[in-house]
């Protein structure tokens, strides 16, 4: 798994008007090609009376799934420019749909490329780019006498925390960056003088908006 990658937040939409044609750009974070196709179909259903619903998506750690659709526009004037925006912005696991309502004025091939590029950029900006970073769940069980000191040190360290469980001991769900997991365990062992029970859980991505 990648330690981090850039994508978009869950969903965003923005509209621009170029020579009386309306272009509605939408972007969404997806985990699979099936999710991307489902989103495209949902947009087509919502904007069933649009002139075109052009789309592109890029999925996978190595961008191994890349698809683009001109949806009736001249070849290479819609889907490919949308895909190029995704690539240029360095995004992964993203689907973008740009819907067009024809306004009666022909734009020409160059105009279409610029319009669909701008529509894709607007949709992505509306969704809000985020950096997804891989975090490692680490369960730390301690006696109650350690709780105040450990919580204070975790706050000072800026460690992301999950749910805390209170039984005969306190179990803290600590979520450091995956690449910092082993140093974190050593630090926690030293902090608690070896009295903490520490075990690794799952690794998962967390969206960070400070990019």
Account of the protein in words:
By secondary structure, this protein is α+β, with helices and mostly antiparallel strands. Helix content is 31%, strand content 36%. The chain has five helices and ten strands; from the N terminus they run E-E-E-H-E-E-H-E-H-E-H-E-E-H-E. The strands form two sheets. Strands 1, 7, 8, 9 and 10 form a five-stranded antiparallel sheet that branches. Strands 2-3-6-4-5 form a five-stranded antiparallel sheet, sandwiched between helices. Helix 2 crosses helix 3 (108-127). The two termini are 20 Å apart.
Itemize the secondary structure elements and their pairings.
Elements: E1 4-8, E2 11-18, E3 21-29, H1 33-46, E4 52-59, E5 65-69, H2 79-88, E6 94-101, H3 108-127, E7 129-142, H4 147-157, E8 165-166, E9 170-174, H5 181-191, E10 197-208
Helix pairs in contact: 2-3
Keyphrases for this structure?
211 residues; alpha+beta
Low-confidence stretches: none
Contiguous helical run count: 5
Largest sheet: 5 strands, antiparallel
Mean pLDDT: 96
Short description:
With 211 residues, this protein is α+β, with helices and mostly antiparallel strands. The chain has helices spanning 33-46, 79-88, 108-127, 147-157, 181-191, and strands at 4-8, 11-18, 21-29, 52-59, 65-69, 94-101, 129-142, 165-166, 170-174, 197-208.
